[in-house]
Amino acid sequence: MPSKFVLLFLCLSVVACRIDEREPTLPIIIDADTANEVDDLFALVRAIDEPAFDLLGITAAQFHTSPLASDKTAEESHKINEDILRLLNQQDIPAVLGSNLPLAAPDQAATSAASNFIVEKAMGMPEGETLHLVILGSCTNVASAILQEPRILPKIWVHYLGFWHDPATNSYDKKEFNSGNDTLAIEYLLNLKDLRMDVMTATTSENLVFEKSVVDQRLKGKGGIADYLVNRWETYERWWTEKDPDKTSWIMWDVAIIEALARPDLAERQPFSSPSENTPRSIGIYTKLDKAGMTADFWRHLEIVLR
């Protein structure tokens, strides 16, 4: 029978092997139009303190086409981003303001602190490593960064939440909110032949739905970030639908792409040809997600955050 010292050695060896075999953390920047809706807030809280991520910063995106939009939508998003980081005691993560306006021309950057920040972090990536840019809203800040400094192209990987897609026919519908908030920027990204790009489509992400009753049970009355999320759900008025006036459920579009990156086993991604009107190339598209798995994983993470 092995001695206790042999058993201790074997246990430590197993732990060491598991540590060595862990997937490397993803260096990411999340670009979010947080003030636009509700799901961005849930997505950011899910991403912050995720062990699979090295979250380098959160940049604020514009959403000028909303009927509720002011002329300072990026600033409104920036304020909420700062609130979330403060409530989670994560103010060491930079919150950076993006452009309040979309691209004015296909070859003209809408330069901002956010696009400068993306360039800085991309150019600073060690040789052979990739900066992952997660776009939860318009593509303005990321497209601007590439326009400002094309040398970042081989150093980045874009993960975009947007447009509708039919996998059976590989047909695209860009008449979707995120895409519509900067049509020049999304076309620019799709036409960059060498850009690594994955897309969590609206078609797929609309399947991830949270119920208000569950949110209340898990968050309401717990103070801090918990009540901040509940208050956002209750006070934000949906302008795009008359269904469900009591807001008993909410599509968590943005949570879907964060979950897919943190837990690749919970989503299925396939290569597809780009839209016919864009530069021919292959892009990755998420075609399926595990709703139950993503929901359970979200609440698992929130339990840790709320301790």
Characterization of the model:
The protein is an alpha/beta fold and 307 residues long. The protein is built from twelve helices and twelve strands. It has helices at 4-20, 39-47, 73-87, 113-123, 140-148, 177-180, 183-190, 202-205, 212-219, 224-235, 253-262, 291-305, and strands spanning 26-32, 53-60, 95-97, 131-135, 156-161, 164-166, 171-173, 196-200, 209-211, 249-251, 267-273, 282-289. The protein has an eight-stranded mixed sheet, sandwiched between helices. A two-stranded antiparallel ribbon has the order 6-7. Strands 9-10 form a two-stranded antiparallel sheet. Helix 5 links the parallel strand 4 and strand 5 (156-161). Helix 2 packs parallel to helix 11, helix 4 (113-123) crosses helix 5 and helix 9 packs antiparallel against helix 10. The longest helix is centred in the N-terminal third of the chain and has 17 residues, at 4-20.
Q: Give me the strand/helix succession.
A: HEHEHEHEHEEEHHEHEHHEHEEH
Query: Roughly what is the average pLDDT, rounded to an integer?
Result: 93
Main beta sheet: strand number and arrangement? 8 strands, mixed
Instruction: Give the strand order of the largest sheet, numbering strands 1, 2, ... along the chain.
Output: 3-2-1-4-5-8-12-11
Q: What is the SS-derived class?
A: alpha/beta
Overall 3D form: globular
Low-pLDDT windows of residues: 4-22
Distance between the termini: 42 Å
Number of strands: 12
